[in-house]
Amino acid sequence: MSDKINRIVLAFSGGLDTSVILKWLQQTYGCEVVTFTADLGQGEELEPARAKARLMGVKEEHIFIDDLREEFVKDYVFPMMRANALYEGLYLLGTSIARPLIAKRQIEIAKMVGADAVSHGATGKGNDQVRFELGYYALSPDVKVIAPWREWDLTSRTRLIEFAEKHQIPIPRDKRGESPFSTDANMLHTSSEGKVLEDPWEETPDFVYSRTVNPEDAPDAPEYITIDFEQGDGVAINGVGMSPATLLETLNDYGRKHGIGRLDLVENRFVGMKSRGMYETPGGAIYHLAHRGIEQITLDRGAAHLKDELAPKYAELIYNGFWFSPEREMLQAAVDYSQQKVTGTVRLKLYKGGVYVVGRKSPYSLYSEKVVTFEDDAGAYDQRDAAGFIKLNALRLRLLGRRDR
Amino acid sequence: MSDKINRIVLAFSGGLDTSVILKWLQQTYGCEVVTFTADLGQGEELEPARAKARLMGVKEEHIFIDDLREEFVKDYVFPMMRANALYEGLYLLGTSIARPLIAKRQIEIAKMVGADAVSHGATGKGNDQVRFELGYYALSPDVKVIAPWREWDLTSRTRLIEFAEKHQIPIPRDKRGESPFSTDANMLHTSSEGKVLEDPWEETPDFVYSRTVNPEDAPDAPEYITIDFEQGDGVAINGVGMSPATLLETLNDYGRKHGIGRLDLVENRFVGMKSRGMYETPGGAIYHLAHRGIEQITLDRGAAHLKDELAPKYAELIYNGFWFSPEREMLQAAVDYSQQKVTGTVRLKLYKGGVYVVGRKSPYSLYSEKVVTFEDDAGAYDQRDAAGFIKLNALRLRLLGRRDR
Amino acid sequence: MSDKINRIVLAFSGGLDTSVILKWLQQTYGCEVVTFTADLGQGEELEPARAKARLMGVKEEHIFIDDLREEFVKDYVFPMMRANALYEGLYLLGTSIARPLIAKRQIEIAKMVGADAVSHGATGKGNDQVRFELGYYALSPDVKVIAPWREWDLTSRTRLIEFAEKHQIPIPRDKRGESPFSTDANMLHTSSEGKVLEDPWEETPDFVYSRTVNPEDAPDAPEYITIDFEQGDGVAINGVGMSPATLLETLNDYGRKHGIGRLDLVENRFVGMKSRGMYETPGGAIYHLAHRGIEQITLDRGAAHLKDELAPKYAELIYNGFWFSPEREMLQAAVDYSQQKVTGTVRLKLYKGGVYVVGRKSPYSLYSEKVVTFEDDAGAYDQRDAAGFIKLNALRLRLLGRRDR
Amino acid sequence: MSDKINRIVLAFSGGLDTSVILKWLQQTYGCEVVTFTADLGQGEELEPARAKARLMGVKEEHIFIDDLREEFVKDYVFPMMRANALYEGLYLLGTSIARPLIAKRQIEIAKMVGADAVSHGATGKGNDQVRFELGYYALSPDVKVIAPWREWDLTSRTRLIEFAEKHQIPIPRDKRGESPFSTDANMLHTSSEGKVLEDPWEETPDFVYSRTVNPEDAPDAPEYITIDFEQGDGVAINGVGMSPATLLETLNDYGRKHGIGRLDLVENRFVGMKSRGMYETPGGAIYHLAHRGIEQITLDRGAAHLKDELAPKYAELIYNGFWFSPEREMLQAAVDYSQQKVTGTVRLKLYKGGVYVVGRKSPYSLYSEKVVTFEDDAGAYDQRDAAGFIKLNALRLRLLGRRDR
């Protein structure tokens, strides 16, 4: 394998950092750079990225701008939601779940255009570099990976701006000064971290939030919605059938309005340090609880408890960037197997930052009023069975008690 | 072992059901019945229980009314909270955690008064019978257990009332008719189930709630509080040191006021069926999130993730009644080991049903601004290390990719 | 549902106990009894069972004798072996894995002949009653289950013999006296327990073993064999393709000859007590290690370790009788997913009770001499990557060490 | 923190490699090197290491040769054995468990002599570098770690020999040529890997084994021994009390004689590749099975199964070098809690490579002949309890069966 790079596919947002990277790659490697800009519903115009790429000499056929929104929700967000994954008990993994899709598409493009290298704009302290690169390597084991933030000498904002000025890269007015925090966004969430958020004792300032109203400013009346699920995935809101991405966007609208899905978290990064982030996952927070709601009546206890035991590991794998790994796929196989009858309707109340499951029904419900009722159950359950059940569950404890107590 | 019972210790609330049981035991077994009424902070007068027991002929020295509130919170609620236990992802185990303490005290009294049997008023369909009886058997392997609801023929409310009337047991006015649902309460929570709650599609009616205001009726302004933790346990609120029970009661007041801790759940009982319950855990819900908050900065990742993997099993053990089991104690040993430096302060915002951790600090914080900062970190972290880290994490995926992709 | 039984399908071995049960069922329920005798390779003649059933008045079309050997190995033993399941670290689950198949076939026959009840000859202290009945209930939720050993009054051997004599049931000469231990057998193993085995300090007497020679009597020279695997299942021995049952039988022959697969175990029964058993699993013990051997070169680490973490739970489920449960099926889905490339050849040395994997090869091997070699690896692995790998794995421990040490 | 190194503590075996490293460190860093040679029962003379260190100018007071045998077995091997740890189902972790002790002692010496750096002779492809360095960093977060194999240019054996010749480092006759494989040894085991072992299809040649006779050459008669355990640790053999190290040495003698504990394994390294090793763990293999034997009668099922579920993760942590981590310590706390009554005697048969537990007894036995017996149990167990036990365990499966089958 020679070290000479011929063509690089760059994950390109069109922002200042990846514009600088684009130029730096062209200069440093003296080769063609192909830009790839993904629409993951981050809510930004993508055409300016095309203009920028053109301006910096990227060939027309080497500018890729792809709408991945449906694929993102259908093949990444929904499978993850089937597992009820929460990292460290609370985090809905909004950034983590987008990285493997970007990596996958980047590798597809590399194969298409005959590139031998890929590059991204993630820094050397974060998790995203790991997620991108594990994806690259899993899907294209011999690809060359270039991570400029770990390699170049533009180690301060001042030097980055100087480089941009020197190479006539447009610098947005608000990027001249230091941004007060850094963000990542896609259809599932927006994350913010750094600077004003770095002291975990200080409350997140209001200006950091962009995807949700403050619960205090949310409507004074609760709103009720229903979500229909089929085989573990959302298919309709208030009875109206929707594609995965449309469904998530619709839930985002509800979540934004009612101030739902804000999370202030100090988490453990895969690279070894703790960081403090602020996440907004408006639609995802609603969806997560709704999915639990429909599982409550359609999932057997054995399946449900096994899922609960597997979920922390599953979440950790996604957080750490192991989406394309046999162990994540094995867990997915187990989870997906369990979802065959996770079909039905959940009713939710949304109010001032809160999501409350208030009803659930299903043609496949395992809940039996007849069995559970305090009333006469017509023999559906023989209470005397409980005596034997308890006696045999107690047997080992009694033998132990005789020895130890 | 002869079958003749000499003396029975009954878990006695003083309500209609356990009063009927008291009489029925006296009649059926022709022996002395000792009553034990526990104050677990359920918020009811306990002296009426004494009067009732007297009225039914229980000897003065055989009437036990014990205040177990501090022991309950210190030795049961707090250890459980150290584990971040949630049953089926959501339930704070308020009923489950009280049963082992009642069982333990009942067995202690049985030993004190020389009783050879214990009895309780839990029905044959629920989990509580299991929790009581596993506790009894673990602590006193040869004790005789009498579960009237599984044995007698008072299988309808009408017959129960008839029995009460016939034996001049006072019947509270509101118990003549059918109660619209059934409840259990202690300092940690109130649970409600049955009757009006039996259709899981129907929203819980407002009159079911007793421990919290409706979030819609909660104050329009958020309130901030701090909780101080030492070695994993809460010790102060807003800087004021408190005993465990006082601390939980104080949080209950905050939770009640702000409508916090309501949960509508369809859960899987240990005895095999699904049931729908409504839980109010006002203080516990606040405490649970606060504990996670302080762990975020004081717990190492390895410890935190191991705890997350063990928590579902730990919660299941408590739910199923295995508090007094070697496996619960082993998990507790692991959890407690992790809490040695879980010391510090969490700041929380309470608002309309929501609890938000907004700040945490600790003399033992593992969060390092110096390491995590986007700014110059003065060599605390070498970004180039990440390259090797990723390469070796990727190695097996690359070997796999070469084979499979 | 009425209590009147119309027709019962009995799991019928043709031995004394199930013959007595057959008669007892006819008498007690006054209904037709259908006999089902499974050939699971237990190595007994089955035609005598037919004769006995006839003799006791079972209609010709109600006598079922089915050869289930291939189904047993293909659909039960092999899937379990894919999971490397060992109960309590050592036991290959030979009895446990046969029960669900018998239950399944019994239910199929019940549906065929319009029976409303099923019955078996397992006692009330063992695991087998649970395994049979959980299978029955899972596959036919409303079937009536009759477990004579828990119901009748033939509670001693003497009374059983009396009953047999009275009803002219042939009593094998060796059954008049007490058998010195009790056994179960199928193609995978023979288990022995009870009587002479009940003191776990006493060595198992030689006459208990029936499936293997004593290692001391095994050949003095080792023997080498190969097993070929495809997608996780054995397909050939010494290069000769075989059906699943033939393959297992062939391994049984090797195992018998070399004294392989004896296990003396004190285990924990699902019904709560400890029991001591002696197991002979000649072919299974060879197969188990061979399967691990082929996985060593074809399974990725992530998959392998996840399998190892799941295996104890999987084994427990089978031991406890939960073969037909969603959680076992979910785990199977995960395990099976991992086996797609578990293809190749394992070479084994068999000698005096020992099985040694001495070689393995595969077209899908993930083992790379090029990467692992101590010699020059031509850049396949950059040793400097290890520095970063270690540094970032150490980071959290260093932060912790600064705080705690 | 300056980069200037003042004093280095080297883990020094006295062999060629670490002698070259000693010289290289002196030259490269121009500072004092302190040598530390651990006696872990590897069976080599250690005084030659002293002579060599002297020869190379190490000050007398800077030559440390410590007998760590008792500490090794008592504080590392035994705790690990309590957990029944097996890496990838088979490997007794003989190399892995020695590394943390060496690292710990090295750090202690560094503190004693005021050294600011530590160094070891492990290569950049293996696990040992990770185990050493994670230990160093955990115990001394700011220590400087020097790993010559990852840093220097002596990348071939020829260059290493040249360097040794040039610096008059004595070269053992047998080290001039290429060694046919590489080994590591301590009291628990000897491992061999590389060269002649690199093709996993080729059987390990006989000359590789050094700690055990070939089973074929072992005595033709079996030998029986007993091991006494107290609280989970071995304390006596054949009734003779022994210190931990003496006990393990004695078992090693038995194991060697009977050809016990050979393992040919392809395993997954933490650094990402598969490697093939041959392990001899004669005493450890006996001890491991004996410990399982005594647990069989003294450990409750709940404790035993929890241990089995935790063991793979525990083993992985040790293998990967995380001995000094909170999660390993948490698991140890759980394991140790379970061992309080793991006291009693195990009887074993040793024969031609095989270890067979043939008897176990304990004053704390939970095995109850009275309960388990096929004979009349005088009411110790009521078989009718099993009916209720099964019915309630089946309930969820029946509800599921009604829905799905």
Automatic annotation (TrEMBL), chains A, B, C, D:
Lineage: Bacteria, Pseudomonadati, Pseudomonadota, Alphaproteobacteria, Sphingomonadales
Main localization category: cytoplasm
Keywords associated with the record: Amino-acid biosynthesis, Arginine biosynthesis, ATP-binding, Cytoplasm, Ligase, Nucleotide-binding
Pathway info: Amino-acid biosynthesis; L-arginine biosynthesis; L-arginine from L-ornithine and carbamoyl phosphate: step 2/3
Name of this protein: Argininosuccinate synthase
First-level EC class: ligase
Binding site for ATP: A11, F12, S13, G14, G15, L16, D17, T18, S19, A38, G121
BP GO terms, sorted: argininosuccinate metabolic process; L-arginine biosynthetic process; urea cycle
Organism: Sphingobium fontiphilum
Keyword flag Glycoprotein: no
Subcellular compartments: Cytoplasm
Domain Arginosuccinate synthase C-terminal: from-to ranges: 181-398
Recorded superkingdom: Bacteria
